[in-house]
Design goal:
Layout (H helix, E strand, L loop, with lengths): L2 H19 L5 E2 L4 H13 L8 H21 L8 E3 L3 E3 L13 E4 L10 E3 L13 E3 L6 E2 L2 H9 L3 E3 L6 E6 L5 E4 L4
Amino acid sequence: MTADRQRINIRAAASALAPLAHKHELVLSHGNGPQVGLLALQAAAYTGVEPYPLDVLDAQTEGMIGYMIEQELRNLLPRNVPFATILTMVEVDPADLAFTHPTKFVVPSTAGRMQTGLVWKKAGFFSGTGNSSGGLCLPPGPSGIFEIRPICWLLEQGAIVICTGGGGIPVMYQPENGSRLKGLKQS
């Protein structure tokens, strides 16, 4: 979970992707579960303020990983190739059963209960830490991508687009707040 290790992994992926850019439009996405988990653990270690919610952690990791992918691909492609890393919000359904029956864990339960918009569940998982007693779970799958029009426009302009990292930043319309768009469990 170091920046150097991420850079090495991204450099290897970029080496495989760069030849495709000469013949194809590229829209790249990436995972971010371990990175979100790391940020949540770091936030839990600092008790001076409330930890950031899941949507903000997702945005942080989307930007960080997108930046690294873009930089490594730029090192392999001609300077005139346009890139765009897009912070991508995806709509999730607040009534989705995945909120009460989550399946993908990102933080071991030993981290304590953090107020991030993630759901706690006692079950086995692999976190790389050897802990298998439970942890924070990711939200349900998206029903739509808010930035789909700009993504399509960028592709039409010949850009390589990096978007929907980690599945996108989960947001929902909350009728009780005047149908305002909100991140998970934000007030």
